[in-house]
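Support request, please re-run this one:
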Amino acid sequence: MHELSYAQALLDEVLKLAEENEAKRVTKIRLRIGELLLINPEQLKFCFKAISSGTIAENAEIEIEFIKPEIVCTECGRRFDEVRGLCDCGGIVAVSGGKEFLLMSVEMEVE
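Re-run finished. Output below.
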């Protein structure tokens, strides 16, 4: 389950930021995740909740925005909604983006 790996990396970064800011509690985490990572948001939230138990990030709300990849034919410039190998014109389709995992913001209570 790769959601657990992402949840652990997220928790590590959030706790580091909280420590740097002398926070006493993390209340909200905002993420932007590329659709091509195929992360299930409910599984990610479940994993994060399980591993953050007993930390200051316990019960933090996680807000996720998904990022669509850009899929364009290198010959004719046609754009597609789904990944494919070739365009109808015979050109190769290039895929960019869609694999991001970005921590956009962390809301925390500080003293």
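The chain has a mean pLDDT of 95. The two ends are 37 Å apart (CA to CA).
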